Amino acid sequence: MRAGGATTVSRAYGLDGDSPGRIRRWAVENLESLLPAECGQTGVIDEAELIVSELLTNALLTHCTRVVLDLCIDDERIRVEVFDDAPGRPTLLRAAVDDERGRGIAIVAELSSDWGVQPVEHGKKVWAELLIHDDGTSAGA
C-alpha cells in the first residue's frame, strides 16, 4: 500500500442529525484515495464505512456535541477511531429481533479484527481495526 509506514487523516465535527452522512462521505473519499485501487478496495471500504456509521450513531445517541474521526491506514490494517465528549462506554449487547437499538457495537465487533474503548480527557475514544488482505477484503472477527 504505502512504502514507509502509516497514514492518518483526522477531522473534527460538531454533531447533529446530518453529521453521520457527511462524515461517512469524508471517510470513504479518504479511504478511496489512500488505498490502492489494485487491491480491490471496495469490500474493505464498505466495511470501514459501516463501522464509521455505527460508531458515529452511538456518539449521536449519547448526545455528544463534538466528534473527531481518525482513519489510520498502513499496509495491514485500517483503524477507525471516534473520539467523543459523551460520558459512558458503549457495550456489546444482545439485541432481540424486535429491538430498535442495540446492534451497533455487535456489528462493529463482527466486522473488525479488534475493537475497544479508551477513556480520554473530556470523553472517550472508540476504535476498531480491519485487517486488509491482498485482495482488498477485510479479515473481521
Question: What does this protein look like?
Answer:
The chain contains 3 helices and 5 strands; from the N terminus they run E-H-H-E-E-H-E-E. It is an alpha+beta fold. It has one domain: Histidine kinase-like ATPase, C-terminal domain (Heat Shock Protein 90), CATH 3.30.565.10. It has a 5-stranded antiparallel sheet with strand order 1-2-3-5-4.
Domains, number: 1
CATH arch. level architecture: 2-Layer Sandwich
> How much beta, percentage-wise?
25-35%
Largest sheet composition: 5 strands, antiparallel
DSSP helical segment count: 3
From the helix content, strand content and strand pairing, which structural class follows?
A: alpha+beta
Q: Roughly how much helix do the residues carry, as a percent range?
A: 25-40%
Q: Sketch the topology as an H/E string, one letter per element.
A: EHHEEHEE
CATH class: Alpha Beta
The strand order across the widest sheet is 1-2-3-5-4
Strand tally is 5
Uncertain segments are: none
Looking at CATH, the homologous superfamily is Histidine kinase-like ATPase, C-terminal domain
Return Rg in Å.
15 Å
Mean pLDDT: 82
Morphology call = globular
Q: How far is the first residue's CA from the last residue's CA? A: 22 Å
Question: Could you please say which CATH topology applies here?
Answer: Heat Shock Protein 90
Fold blueprint:
Layout lengths: L6 E8 L4 H16 L7 H20 L4 E8 L3 E8 L19 H8 L2 E7 L2 E9 L10
Antiparallel strand pairs: 1-2, 2-3, 3-5, 4-5
Helix pairs in contact: 1-2, 2-3
